[in-house]
Amino acid sequence: MASIAKFTALSLTVLVESRRAYGWEAIGHTLDRLKLLTSTVEGDWARCPLARVQDDTDFADDGSREIATATWSILKTLLFTTLMLSQSILSAVVYIPSPQSSSAFSSSSETSSPYGMALDVLHVLSHLSFIMPQFGGVASTSDSGLPELKRAFYMALDVLSASETEADRFVEALCHAEGTAGKGKGLDVPRGLSDARKSFALACAEQLVPVLSEAVIQSRVYPLCLPHLWDPSHRETYESAHSVMLAIFASHAQNSAVRQQQPSGVGSAFAEKIVPMYARCLVENSIDDRLSTVQLCMAYAALVRSASSFGYANAAPSDAHDRGTTQADTMAWFCIELLLDAIRHVGTVPMKATLPYSSTASSSAVATSGSTPTPSEHLHRLHLTLISSVPSVPLTLLPRLLTEVKAIVLSVPLSSRERTVDRRAEEMRRELVEALFKAISQDVGDAEKDFAIEWWYENLQNLVRAETPPRHPIFDGAEATATLVEASNIVSRL
Fold it and tell me: What keywords would UniProt list here (predicted)?
């Protein structure tokens, strides 16, 4: 099969380069055959008992296990063959112009267009999505994966993204098919096959979000994501759903400047409307076995960063800047306040450090730290999430946020002459200070850098309590993630 696939791929390439019209026609016929073949294989797999096998204990005997091994070998060969042909086809689509104007080419312009070819490749890969988890899948969150698979997948999406209309049609059809299957219509699809299909659909939607219309995002993409945001039973689908949500917010934030010039409308504000829901969703997914600490920190920081640029959707052109800035600050602080409420609910952090707001942290944090127990891992994860949001807020909100961060850091106990605390508590304290140092030294923007550095020096001694070697956030920034040197007599390099 490998030799035949290589020969076919090379033949298509040579034919397209030498006789362009007939080459494109041959590509169309090849894709039609691949769609028919892969669709049949997917349908047969849905009815096959092997599709419901979860692990080796589900096999009745060694004979069944050998049949399963042989079947998967055939399926993997089919995937490799398809990828080899797809890469050859996509290379032709990208580098060789379409001969639509040629009289010798009889196929319809839609089929012969680069977008039509890319759509066909994506539909073929969609039919084989149940095989992809064996190779790491195609989701952006997967660290591993088959390079040839990702190359074909993302190349097809790149071609398709050049046409907003075709991208809308593809994602709408894909999400509609998965939504219909999820409602129990049609064949009873095995869970593994259903999850693989949805993961593929979400991965496509994530990459195409910047060119999708608000209507498709609101009516198709968002409903497909929603059920999986709280369901980590299938990890790839769960993480892909969160990636799509963050892509929606990021795309809306990037287009905020353009939206200021557009007439106000209901659809343009959809991403802003779902900010409260997703902020609560992330907080609820901060418990164990959901989002990891790194994922939670990155997601919440991205949400706050996007929220900081919202607020222009329904503002009149005359006051778009002033009103938009105020609404953006309000929306960003809503996300911060929601996280602070969760911290106060989960742990024993002092009540709000600023009631009313003041420029210095409340002394209640220090006063009560003597009786503060070791924070739970859940609480520590929320603390790190709050610190990760420091670079995401504008300068107008930074003093308030740093005041809250200071109160939280001081609430984590440290050993002293008067008391001895758990070693894990000291590790948590150091991790918080290190995370804050990294945020200020590496991630804070230029507009906020001066204030952040000044604040760091003003509060350095209280934060480190002579347990963490103080460092300069500029000259020592490269060492922010290095292993902490536990030496109380190390002084600042300045």
Answer: Transferase
